[in-house]
């Protein structure tokens, strides 16, 4: 080729490329991808994987270095980047790339944001949270307090309000020397002032959310939302005397592990939490030296190889870091869980024995009880007009739906659902209403009562009472009502009750693993709050509080994270799976009336698909007697039993040359502390489990079995005699279905190893299904 034509050729190529990239930026904006790389193919010429990733990215794409967001070392093998379709294509062609996955935006597991139309069946999941920090069952454990000073908890959330007294470092010894993390500076965050021997880390991860959304995140660890401060203070908050939300729930507030250290990783914003940011934070947390990771967020359930939280948590588990996640707030629908990987603790939510009663007295002489955290001026004694459903979606009290001429001076009945509960109150108030009865429906909450700090006198009632009041408001003669408030009451019975909003199984990713694992306090929980947000999170609410009351599995997850800290402090040599086993096998399934657990949706019996192994019992979890341990090799054998390609397994395991030389016949063979038995092709399911003695030398256990009449369960042997601590014994359990696959109703049982000191309990669910 003559040199002039070469120049012309090059020139036209350049123009073409320029044109293409211009067109692309018009036609299709860049999207964020997580790029999975073949880690062990790094050429020797690169000193680090990071250098290789950066160079590979720049060579294959014409993209500017800015579009590379993160490189990952520990939680993942690869990097994330904002890519155009042609750049995606270029990377896909590379032999060094396993795959590219579009970034996912996760949600906090308490939210008051309205759902889109059509999704109104989903509960709006966040409502009062009140950490029952006055749980006094942990206060006697002083040696544990000392030991937990050496345990570091990572909370991945909306940041932290560092001035809160829960994060004071009074009387704390120096930070453990292994700590590698940092506190970053911002205009409103001075590490020298705001970080201390309690709050030892504060970092921000926002490149993913900035690339995927219109968000312009504030580059500061400071929590302007409140959620992160709430979850962090629930897990590890120091005791703070005499706190309340506007007078409600007054008492001393403390987290589950008040002496352990807190490292905050801000990954969530008003727009949500990007998978690429979460992964970067997990990567950082692991390298910083944390012991427990608490994540009250999630969304959907993807196969593990496409789930950044599951992939990051696999590496954490291998490093001995315990990962605790919220189960989600999409109950009572079945199969509504997130965060179901077997190496994660999946936490559901229930009530505590405290409540906030409020009363609606009607003109017909009836008086009904609901709940409220209203704290303003009362309505007085005088009954006023009661009104419901004037058309135009006024039954839901959507913004703009209420006609002020009809509503003024009255109490308005509003159906729960669609828009935030507290917003309905403001809509009523703006239209001149003087009170609201917030009434649940079948689709929204059932009998579940969530308390909110409303701005207008409000009583929240369940569906049954709601139906009666709706009927009276529509058909009564001159219907009237007055609302009053009962403050805080304790010793509520029954409690705990499983929350209707708590997400349920079956686990749709791997149905052979029962999820959720366990549940804890998650309804009307008091904990710390952001000084930059109102208690209702409404912009029009100008109140500021140090403590707030919320609900959600976001609230129960950090309870379990904090209790895991205590177990880690008491037993530093236990693996994450041993800690999980202790939390599960000692959980209880009777409430404080000594009856089987109920569900707030309709106060009928709850099942392990909602409550897992049961409600956490921190005392018993410290001395479980026996544990079901699982090693990384066991989890690999589990993955090998799924119909995953080797590439998918490598993505999760992140080891060169991982093989499936050992694989389970069935994923349910994993040494898990619960059983999910699927009668599909076969009417016989057989599993072997291994128990490790963590109790006295020479302990003897006998099995007890509870099974539905439709299944025969046999265990061999029926007695286990253990030697030293660490001694392992196996048993085999055989489940035989007596009924055909056509019957789809789930049933439940229990396998328990007992002696005078301990009961080591495993729930069993039986599912008859045609899958597999
Ligand atoms: C707690 O605080 C409230 C309000 O600030 C105050 O009235 C009360 O006396 C305090 N109680 C105790 C025991 O300090
Ligand atoms: C419903 O809204 C429409 C338009 O805003 C209005 O004309 C109509 O009067 C409203 N109906 C009721 C019952 O308020
Ligand atoms: C209702 O909508 C108006 C107009 O968009 C807005 O100014 C107001 O804040 C909204 N009210 C509530 C309670 O959201
Ligand atoms: C569980 O397995 C891990 C990994 O093999 C081991 O380090 C640990 O000692 C075992 N036992 C317990 C109780 O964690
Ligand atoms: C309660 O609700 C569950 C669904 O969550 C349903 O299966 C059950 O039949 C209901 N029980 C009663 C008594 O209505
Ligand atoms: C993985 O396998 C390849 C090819 O079989 C080999 O060259 C390499 O050394 C192995 N790596 C490790 C860490 O075993």
TrEMBL record:
Q: Which Pfam families match?
A: fn3_6, Inhibitor_I9, PA, Peptidase_S8
Q: Which residues form the PA domain?
A: 393-468
Subtilisin-like protease fibronectin type-III domain: from which residue to which, for each copy?
A: 669-765
Keyword field: Hydrolase, Protease, Serine protease, Signal
List residues of the Peptidase S8/S53 domain: 149-590
Determine if Cytoplasm is one of this entry's keywords: no
Q: Where is this region: Disordered?
A: 213-234
Cite the InterPro entries for this sequence.
PA_domain, Peptidase_S8/S53_dom, Peptidase_S8/S53_dom_sf, Peptidase_S8_subtilisin-rel, Peptidases_S8_3, S8pro/Inhibitor_I9, S8pro/Inhibitor_I9_sf, SBT
Task: Kindly identify the residues recorded as the active site.
Answer: 157 (charge relay system), 227 (charge relay system), 554 (charge relay system)
Q: Which residues are in the Inhibitor I9 domain?
A: 32-109
Would you indicate the residue range of the signal peptide?
Answer: 1-29
Q: Where is the composition biased (Polar residues)?
A: 221-234
Of which family is this protein a member? Belongs to the peptidase S8 family.
PANTHER family from the UniProt entry: PROPROTEIN CONVERTASE SUBTILISIN/KEXIN
Protein name per Swiss-Prot or TrEMBL: Subtilisin-like protease
Origin organism is: Penstemon davidsonii
């Amino acid at each position: 080729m003559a040199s002039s034509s070469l120049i012309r050729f090059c020139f036209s190529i350049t123009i073409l490329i320029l044109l293409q990239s211009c067109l692309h930026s018009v036609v299709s904006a860049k999207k964020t991808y997580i790029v999975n790389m073949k880690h062990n193919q790094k050429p020797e010429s690169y000193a680090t994987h990071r250098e290789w990733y950066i160079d590979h990215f720049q060579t294959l794409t014409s993209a500017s270095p800015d579009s590379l967001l993160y490189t990952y070392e520990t939680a993942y093998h690869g990097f994330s980047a904002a890519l155009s379709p042609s750049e995606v294509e270029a990377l896909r062609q590379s032999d060094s790339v396993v795959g590219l996955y579009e970034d996912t935006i996760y949600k906090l597991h308490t939210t008051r944001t309205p759902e889109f139309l059509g999704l109104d069946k989903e509960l709006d999941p966040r409502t009062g949270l009140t950490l029952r920090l006055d749980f006094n069952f942990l206060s006697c454990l002083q040696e544990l307090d000392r030991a937990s000073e050496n345990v570091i908890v990572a909370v991945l959330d909306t940041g932290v309000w560092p001035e809160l007294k829960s994060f004071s470092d009074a009387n704390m010894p120096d930070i453990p020397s292994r700590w590698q993390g940092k506190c970053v500076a911002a205009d409103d965050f001075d590490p020298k002032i705001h970080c201390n021997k309690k709050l030892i880390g504060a970092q921000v991860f926002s490149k993913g959310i900035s690339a995927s959304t219109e968000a312009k995140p504030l580059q500061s660890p400071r929590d302007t939302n409140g959620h992160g401060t709430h979850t962090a203070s629930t897990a590890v908050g120091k005791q703070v005397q005499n706190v309340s939300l506007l007078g409600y729930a007054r008492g001393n507030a403390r987290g589950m592990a008040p002496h352990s250290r807190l490292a905050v990783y801000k990954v969530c914003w008003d727009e949500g939490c990007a998978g690429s940011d979460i992964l970067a934070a997990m990567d950082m947390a692991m390298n910083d030296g944390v012991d427990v990771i608490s994540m009250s967020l999630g969304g959907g359930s993807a196969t593990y190889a496409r789930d950044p939280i599951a992939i990051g948590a696999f590496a954490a588990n291998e490093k001995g870091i315990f990962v605790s996640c919220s189960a989600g707030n999409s109950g009572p629908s079945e199969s509504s869980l997130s965060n179901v990987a077997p190496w994660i603790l999946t936490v559901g939510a229930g009530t505590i024995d405290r409540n906030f009663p409020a009363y609606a007295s009607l003109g017909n002489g009836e008086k009904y009880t609901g709940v409220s955290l209203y704290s303003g001026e009362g309505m007085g004694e005088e009954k006023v007009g009661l009104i419901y459903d004037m058309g135009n979606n006024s039954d839901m009290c959507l913004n703009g739906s209420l006609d002020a001429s009809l509503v003024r001076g009255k109490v308005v009945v509003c159906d729960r659902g669609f828009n935030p509960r507290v917003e309905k109150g403001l809509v009523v108030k703006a239209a001149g209403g003087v009170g609201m009865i917030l009434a649940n429906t079948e689709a929204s909450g059932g009998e579940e009562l969530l308390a909110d700090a409303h701005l207008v006198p409000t009583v929240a009632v369940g569906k049954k009472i709601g139906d009666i009041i709706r009927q009276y408001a529509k058909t009564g003669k001159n219907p009237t009502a007055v609302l009053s408030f009962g403050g805080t009451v304790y010793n509520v019975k029954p409690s705990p009750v499983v929350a209707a909003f708590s997400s349920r199984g079956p686990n749709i990713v791997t149905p052979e693993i029962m999820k959720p694992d366990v549940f804890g306090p998650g309804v009307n929980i008091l904990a710390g709050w952001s000084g930059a947000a109102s208690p209702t999170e409404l912009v029009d609410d100008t109140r500021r509080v140090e403590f707030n009351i919320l609900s959600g599995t976001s609230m129960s997850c950090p309870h379990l994270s904090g209790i895991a800290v205590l177990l880690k402090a008491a037993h530093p040599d236990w693996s994450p799976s041993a800690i999980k086993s202790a939390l599960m096998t000692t959980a209880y399934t009777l409430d404080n009336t000594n009856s089987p657990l109920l569900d707030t949706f309709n106060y009928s019996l709850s099942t392990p698909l909602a409550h897992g192994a049961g409600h956490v019992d921190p005392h018993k979890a410290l001395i479980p007697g026996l544990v079901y341990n699982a090693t990384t090799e066991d989890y690999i054998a589990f993955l090998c039993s799924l119909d995953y390609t080797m590439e998918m397994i490598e993505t999760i395991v992140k080891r060169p040359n991982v093989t499936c030389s050992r694989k389970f016949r069935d994923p349910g063979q994993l040494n898990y502390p619960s059983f999910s038995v699927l009668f599909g092709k076969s009417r016989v399911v057989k599993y072997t489990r291994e128990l490790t003695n963590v109790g006295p030398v020479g302990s003897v256990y006998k099995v007890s079995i509870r099974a539905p009449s439709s299944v025969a369960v046999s265990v061999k042997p029926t007695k286990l005699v253990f030697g030293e601590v660490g001694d392992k014994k196996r048993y085999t359990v055989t489940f035989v279905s007596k009924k055909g696959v056509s019957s789809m109703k789930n049933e439940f049982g229990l396998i328990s190893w007992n002696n005078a000191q301990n009961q080591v309990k495993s729930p069993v669910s039986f599912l008859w299904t045609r899958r597999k």
